Amino acid sequence: MSWVTGVKSDTLIIPKHAWLTFYVIIMGMGTIQVGWGIMGNAQTSLILNKQFGWTKDETKLNDTILSVSGLVGVMVGSMFGGPVIVGGRRRAIFIMSAFMALGVGLTMIFNMWAIAIGRFITGCAGGIY
Prior knowledge:
Layout: E1 6-9, E2 12-15, H1 17-39, H2 45-52, H3 56-86, H4 89-107, H5 112-128
Antiparallel strand pairs: 1-2
């Protein structure tokens, strides 16, 4: 019997509610982070256009770069998710959290390329899940 799902006692399986709840919360965090990697630029586009002073053509290009960088990060992170999890789920969660912190930190720098790289790293962190 798995240590996550429960303990077998004769014919009755007693679930470990604390472990199951913890597992569901952690998996929910991964889902939220993938969503953040995909949609993180939706409402900020108009603000970035004003702050950076982009023309209409620059706006299309730069918005596309910022939007796609998160998706590409999710794809790259999902390719490396399996090998990372082989080292242990807890270790994978710590690695993902470190990547997420680094990515979010980079998105706070007032530079379009730093934001794009930060969104890529944030997407990688979400893709590890």
